[in-house]
Amino acid sequence: MFVGMSDLDLAEELRAAIGDFVRRARVHDEMPPGQAAVLGHLARSGPLSIADLARLEQVKHQSMARTVGLLADQALVALGRHDADRRQVMLTLTTAGADALASARLARAAGIARAIRDLDDDELEVIRRIPEVLRKLQPAEPERASTTRS
């Protein structure tokens, strides 16, 4: 299937397949992807400002402020002040936020695990190598367009 494909064609095929996979894995998500992404950033990085999160997600500050407001209303994040610059609002993940993120990740992983059960041994061997190979493909700093999403 991929014999004779150019690197660019293979890259596009990979991008499309990964995109389809991610969309299908999110079908049963109870939490919108933008909210899950914010909780994930806070879980990995610790406290972040709205500006930090907007930059990471490549959205406008106002859009991120709305997302953060929804998360705060659900008590999934807590708002506090920066130690050095009291004007800056910092967000932290609450216990409820960590629990919601873990639950969302577990539900998604369970769905993927159900699909994996249908694979044969050769396909399973390929699947076991995919995470390692994908990590090798990630650039140190992703090149992104200069525009932000709304």
From TrEMBL:
Domain of life: Bacteria
Descriptive protein name: MarR family transcriptional regulator
Gene3D superfamilies: Winged helix-like DNA-binding domain superfamily/Winged helix DNA-binding domain
PROSITE patterns hit by this protein: HTH_MARR_2 (PS50995)
One GO molecular-function entry: DNA-binding transcription factor activity
Lineage of origin: Bacteria, Bacillati, Actinomycetota, Actinomycetes, Micromonosporales
HTH marR-type domain mapped to chain residues: 7-136
PANTHER family to which the protein is assigned, alphabetical: CONSERVED PROTEIN, HTH-TYPE TRANSCRIPTIONAL REGULATOR RV0880
SUPFAM superfamilies: Winged helix' DNA-binding domain
